[in-house]
């Protein structure tokens, strides 16, 4: 069924695993991620950035596509459609009214009081509709669509506690050294801060920039309250590689199903690997 993230993430925290957020880019990504979740008997979060939604047609197109695929594939595991890095109250409201079951309001680059104000407004509307809310503090490095960062800023534990208490968000993404896109060398995540934030915030934590984080760090993050891990680049790399290999082997090929099919298989295999690594398999 289509659900919010709230119960999903509470269960993940209680049972010591993380639910993957896998970003949608097109039909094949959606198919692959839903198939992987059903086969693994895993809950799943479909992440949709504003840029990806624009590419696919809009929020309504995304919701209709996901709902139809869930029916055609007889999906029984819990699925959330989540706005990734919502840039404004208006954008979150649009997603909620289109049928998204979860939103992220990313006001982390605004002054703290403004972040609180915007996030509070989003929570009010979202909770009225049974929709969950994720907020962010600090700055995740790298670039994803419209979200560009010059450097990395660690979230402040005091602000994290205050943001959760004053806004009523359902989960929190404290930036602690993670990066969108590939890492240059090993990631250096602030686990000391993560532990403190986990103790003080009292909501499940979210880890952005999941691509390239080694398994021992994933496990450490889960042990410090991380219940959701976002992955996009790794699936994009896997799908691009499959397209390149297919077209290199058969340069005369033109039927999109012949090269996007292998891309879809590659995404599915990658997602299954992540679900096993995050421990969400057989937790639906
Ligand atoms: O919001 C989406 C994620 O944080 C994706 O990060 O592309 O580095 O896996 P990634
Ligand atoms: Zn992110």
UniProtKB/TrEMBL annotation:
Pfam families: F_bP_aldolase. The keyword Signal does not apply. Zn(2+) 2 binds at residues 106, 136. Its cofactor is Zn(2+). The keyword Hydrolase does not apply. InterPro entries: Aldolase_TIM, Class_II_FBP_aldolase, FBA_II, Fruc_bis_ald_class-2. Binds 2 Zn(2+) ions per subunit. One is catalytic and the other provides a structural contribution. Signal peptide: none annotated. Zn(2+) 1 binds at residues 85, 180, 208. It comes from the Bacteria. Keywords: Lyase, Metal-binding, Zinc. One of its GO terms (molecular function) is fructose-bisphosphate aldolase activity. This is Fructose-1,6-bisphosphate aldolase, class II. The active site is at residue 84. Dihydroxyacetone phosphate binds at residues 181, 209-211, 230-233.
């Amino acid at each position: 069924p289509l659900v919010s993230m709230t119960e999903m993430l509470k269960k993940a925290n209680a049972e010591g695993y993380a639910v993957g957020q896998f970003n949608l880019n097109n039909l094949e990504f959606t198919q692959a991620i839903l198939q992987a979740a059903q086969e693994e008997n895993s809950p799943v979060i479909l992440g949709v950035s504003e840029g990806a939604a624009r590419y696919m047609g809009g929020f309504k197109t995304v919701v209709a596509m996901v709902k139809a695929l869930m029916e055609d594939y007889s999906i029984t595991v819990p699925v959330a459609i989540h706005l990734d890095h919502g840039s404004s109250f208006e954008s979150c409201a649009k997603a909620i009214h289109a049928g998204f079951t979860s939103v992220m309001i990313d006001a982390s680059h605004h002054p703290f009081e403004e972040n609180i104000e915007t996030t509070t407004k989003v929570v009010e509307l979202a909770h009225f509709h049974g929709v969950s809310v994720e907020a962010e503090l600090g700055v995740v490095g790298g670039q994803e669509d419209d979200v560009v960062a010059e450097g990395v800023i660690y979230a402040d534990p005091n602000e994290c506690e205050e943001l959760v208490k004053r806004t009523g968000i359902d989960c929190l993404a404290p930036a602690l050294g993670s990066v969108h896109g590939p890492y240059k060398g090993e990631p250096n995540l602030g686990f000391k801060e993560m532990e403190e934030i986990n103790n003080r915030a009292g909501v499940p934590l979210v880890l952005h920039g999941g691509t390239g984080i080694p398994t021992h760090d994933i496990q450490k993050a889960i042990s410090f309250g991380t219940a959701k891990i976002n992955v996009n680049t790794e699936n994009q790399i896997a799908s691009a590689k499959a397209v390149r290999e297919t077209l290199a082997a058969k340069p005369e090929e033109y039927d999109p199903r012949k090269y996007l099919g292998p891309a879809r298989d590659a995404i599915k295999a990658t997602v299954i690997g992540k679900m096993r690594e995050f421990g969400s398999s057989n937790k639906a």
